[in-house]
């Protein structure tokens, strides 16, 4: 299943080679693949697997990778290194990177809406809705705006804002947590989960998102850029508000441990079937990159 091939699909005219190359570079050049993993493993809780699940997982990864390509641009976070390699705009150029991100985003919804993802049109529509809302104005895009706003990028003074922990949690739930939550929700949709099961997975997803961001902020404070494969220390340099900076490292680590316990508890009703998802929560909290 090569979704990023060069051959045009029905309804397409031509796939420009440089755009395809940049899309493949952005989406296939390493990474943890956590979000598609969560789609696959959440679906597997209910016995769902196969092409449709992997297509949905790929769509999720396309959206995540588009966001990284655009976040790395000079107008956003202005990063030169991603996953230990030059960012897409450094490897190609800014215009190509913007178009590659645009193409990954729109293609994600093409993949979800296409019949091979699910024979049931209602399932496909729900997948599209969940991912669109997680990625869009009230989710990841809105969170990225709030993040830039907190840095003082849009204020007349240009000074960073002093955010409360409630404001930081909201920002991070949108920018980072929304796609992680959507990943487990999409797996539940594909698996035909009932309302109670979906609620339990949603609790797990929200908890995992918060844990992921605290771990990420700790890495930004402490890790070596050569290990994590991207620049570190940028949050402090920009005066960005994080829970680690607001609470201190010790309190942040304590909250991280609590979140792992909460994630475990959310999966209790699934028994041993959820062991891999439990392990994922521990991985998120203890990762070194």
UniProtKB/TrEMBL annotation:
InterPro entries in the record: Isoprenoid_synthase_dom_sf (IPR008949), Polyprenyl_synt (IPR000092), Polyprenyl_synt_CS (IPR033749), Prenyl_diphosphate_synthase (IPR053378)
Could you list this entry's UniProt keywords, alphabetically sorted: Isoprene biosynthesis, Magnesium, Metal-binding, Transferase
Which cofactor(s) are needed, names only? Mg(2+)
Alphabetically, the GO molecular function entries are: (2E,6E)-farnesyl diphosphate synthase activity
Reply yes or no: does the keyword Acyltransferase apply. Answer: no
Q: Does the keyword Ubl conjugation apply?
A: no
Give the EC class as a word: transferase
According to its UniProt record, the EC number is 2.5.1.10
Q: Which PANTHER family match?
A: FARNESYL DIPHOSPHATE SYNTHASE
Q: Which family does it belong to?
A: Belongs to the FPP/GGPP synthase family.
Protein name from the UniProt record: Farnesyl diphosphate synthase
Query: Lineage, please?
Result: Bacteria, Pseudomonadati, Pseudomonadota, Alphaproteobacteria, Hyphomicrobiales
């Amino acid at each position: 299943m090569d979704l990023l091939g060069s051959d045009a699909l029905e309804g397409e005219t031509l796939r420009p080679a440089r755009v395809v190359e940049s899309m493949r570079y952005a989406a296939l050049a390493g990474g943890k693949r956590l979000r598609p993993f969560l789609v696959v493993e959440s679906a597997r809780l209910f016995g769902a697997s196969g092409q449709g699940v992997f297509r949905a997982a790929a769509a999720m990864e396309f959206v995540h990778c588009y966001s990284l390509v655009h976040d790395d641009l000079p107008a956003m976070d202005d990063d030169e290194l991603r996953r230990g390699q030059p960012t897409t705009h450094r490897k190609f150029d800014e215009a190509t990177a913007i178009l590659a991100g645009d193409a990954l985003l729109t293609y994600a919804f093409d993949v979800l809406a296409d019949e091979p993802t699910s024979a049931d049109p209602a399932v496909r529509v729900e997948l599209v809705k969940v991912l669109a809302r997680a990625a869009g104005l009230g989710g990841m895009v809105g969170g990225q705006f709030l993040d830039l706003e907190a840095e003082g990028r849009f204020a007349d003074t240009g000074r960073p804002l002093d955010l409360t922990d409630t404001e930081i949690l909201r920002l991070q739930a949108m920018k980072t947590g929304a796609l992680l939550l959507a990943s487990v929700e999409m797996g539940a949709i594909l698996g035909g989960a009932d309302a109670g099961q979906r609620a339990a997975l949603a609790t797990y997803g929200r908890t995992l998102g918060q844990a992921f961001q605290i771990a990420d902020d700790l890495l930004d404070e402490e890790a070596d850029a050569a290990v994590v494969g991207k620049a570190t220390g940028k949050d402090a340099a920009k005066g960005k508000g994080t829970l680690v900076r607001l609470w201190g490292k010790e309190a942040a680590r304590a909250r991280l441990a609590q979140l792992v316990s909460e994630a475990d508890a959310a999966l209790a009703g699934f028994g041993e079937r959820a062991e891999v998802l439990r392990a994922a929560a521990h991985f998120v909290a203890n990762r070194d990159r």
